[in-house]
């Protein structure tokens, strides 16, 4: 309602003076540094050269909108668009500005007198439009998510009512909403000063932006300092789980972050008593670095103070940042008290490092370091562990190193590098190293260069094996060059390949001599495939030459060997629909036959360089050679028969697979072939069988068997039964049996499992027993408490120590000494998710958990 209105004439102008105005249903637009055209204030300036078209356009638009909005209640937004069209027409017809301006002034003044008698409702209060510089600043956007940028955004105030005083200040009442950009503040009341540089809102404050939500009692916005300050507030971040309360919360564009005084912070779900929280005199949350800093803090667990920290830095998200990681605390009879403190170095976006200090009371201080690199050409990693003085190892220095690279070397050449070095054979069993198992008997180092083209490939390797224990060291390949040519032939269903290799084998063992081997294997193959069957015929010529050092003599022998090989292979694919316990299934029957012929050749003069006998499972029955290398090529006149049957449900998921097969030999051996005379003389191999079953997606069974039907004895067997409800509920039972593995009998049973009790608690256990010697091999028992923001894992374990320094493999691989101890691990999530992979609880130790695998699962 208009309370006072006076019209005063001054020099060359008319001014309408208003003492106080109250307008209902106001929507006020505060533009950056506005030049206010008051509701009834307009100065009629004389025409001059300085009064240009742009100035006229801005003032004319404002006046016209004011007049039409108040006098005829016309929508202001529509008028704004009509003005742009009108101004264009004025320019087209050349109507001079000085003629239009007085007319508009008369209309405005007359409308003001009319408003005295008739109360009108305002839709819009118009202020000076933005300058091009302001529009440019607004288009540049905000550089900080948490920061408030008031100068680049117009502030829109909406309220049920507004009072404007003579000094230019204004007050707003009833459902007050302040909007700038994507942020919004709701309040009961709000006031602005005369310069419109400060806005104070009170009562029921609700602040909402893309990043944070704040509830508060009062808030003050300073448009000059570009800041918001909340009093007695609660806050919650939208992009991270962090939240808390503060006596004072200040959002500043200058600081690009949030400053909290007398505040708390936690990443736990909102509750009256969070599982942990940080209570500090001051906390600064940076939007630029996505990290928080706190001063004079205490860590509270379930409301109980447990630790004072004069300063702490913590992440607000999962973005990498330098800092200490959670420690690990353990104890064992071998190492004593064992404490691991890691520190992470975030050096650059494409490389980082982790340094660990490991303190063992029985051994000493170990320094571990791992550096990783990722570039446009490839990735690399360097790992180094160093113990200067091992008190349990005669005071010797012990170390381990690994250098890895995988990527491009140059042009079309790719490179793979994996170099390992250990100071002694028992380093891995004593301390562990990367992903190697404590009972690993050898580790390979390799440098490889390779190139793949359309019809040929080449690979150059330098390879070395390091065997732990007092055993003969294997040969080194210095180098190994492999080439393969596979041209496209014009004949249908016919393919050809020409592989060739050259290897120089070197050794430091006096019982062994070095050698140069050249091997090629040109092959022609015909292959026909149809939906119900496939048939192939293959012929090869295996040509090998050795330049072999004669033992204890400074002489070399040249040995050549040329053998033809013929292979015929056929398979049928039959299927029919069946009903399996009332469910529709498809059953397949896939019989397979293979004939293999290789003539006999005396190979006693050729030493074993890189060849070893392979294990025979069902799929191994159809190999062309039962050795891994070409130092031994077995004579063959044999027929392999086998069959596979599957059950597949209506979702094309394989629920059961059963395979069985055997090799039938037509000729007795004429040469001395290692480990093969016995079964060749009998005319048949052991029966190989594989069974896998998936029962209701919960129970899984896998059974592998190699059984000698004539001797009626099992050569090898492995059984695994899994109950798996989900990733947090599973139990696995297993049994392994082999009567002769490197002159040792393996007869072992084991059980492991993990069970989630509720949302936070899990228990896990494992136990493996040697049935032959009736002793425990390894056992573990533990629990884990894991919330959304922190966790603790405790485990007790006992494992039989391995004797890597045994004189020969014929001796028992295990001693009677056990290593017993516990392990305590912590996890914490200040800003990200701290939940670790639950299956990792059972990955440590000698016998890790292996999830049952099925195709299409």
TrEMBL record:
<dbReference type="InterPro" id="IPR007543">
    <property type="entry name" value="LptD_C"/>
</dbReference>
<dbReference type="InterPro" id="IPR005653">
    <property type="entry name" value="OstA-like_N"/>
</dbReference>
<dbReference type="GO" id="GO:0009279">
    <property type="term" value="C:cell outer membrane"/>
</dbReference>
<dbReference type="InterPro" id="IPR050218">
    <property type="entry name" value="LptD"/>
</dbReference>
<dbReference type="Pfam" id="PF19838">
    <property type="entry name" value="LptD_2"/>
</dbReference>
<dbReference type="GO" id="GO:1990351">
    <property type="term" value="C:transporter complex"/>
</dbReference>
<feature type="domain" description="LptD C-terminal">
    <location>
        <begin position="398"/>
        <end position="761"/>
    </location>
</feature>
<keyword id="KW-0732">Signal</keyword>
<dbReference type="Pfam" id="PF04453">
    <property type="entry name" value="LptD"/>
</dbReference>
<protein>
    <recommendedName>
        <fullName>LPS-assembly protein LptD</fullName>
    </recommendedName>
</protein>
<feature type="domain" description="Organic solvent tolerance-like N-terminal">
    <location>
        <begin position="157"/>
        <end position="290"/>
    </location>
</feature>
<dbReference type="GO" id="GO:0015920">
    <property type="term" value="P:lipopolysaccharide transport"/>
</dbReference>
<dbReference type="Pfam" id="PF03968">
    <property type="entry name" value="LptD_N"/>
</dbReference>
<dbReference type="InterPro" id="IPR045659">
    <property type="entry name" value="LptD_2"/>
</dbReference>
<dbReference type="GO" id="GO:0043165">
    <property type="term" value="P:Gram-negative-bacterium-type cell outer membrane assembly"/>
</dbReference>
<comment type="function">
    <text>Together with LptE, is involved in the assembly of lipopolysaccharide (LPS) at the surface of the outer membrane.</text>
</comment>
<feature type="domain" description="LPS-assembly protein LptD central">
    <location>
        <begin position="298"/>
        <end position="374"/>
    </location>
</feature>
<comment type="similarity">
    <text>Belongs to the LptD family.</text>
</comment>
<keyword id="KW-0472">Membrane</keyword>
<dbReference type="InterPro" id="IPR020889">
    <property type="entry name" value="LipoPS_assembly_LptD"/>
</dbReference>
<keyword id="KW-0998">Cell outer membrane</keyword>
<comment type="subunit">
    <text>Component of the lipopolysaccharide transport and assembly complex. Interacts with LptE and LptA.</text>
</comment>
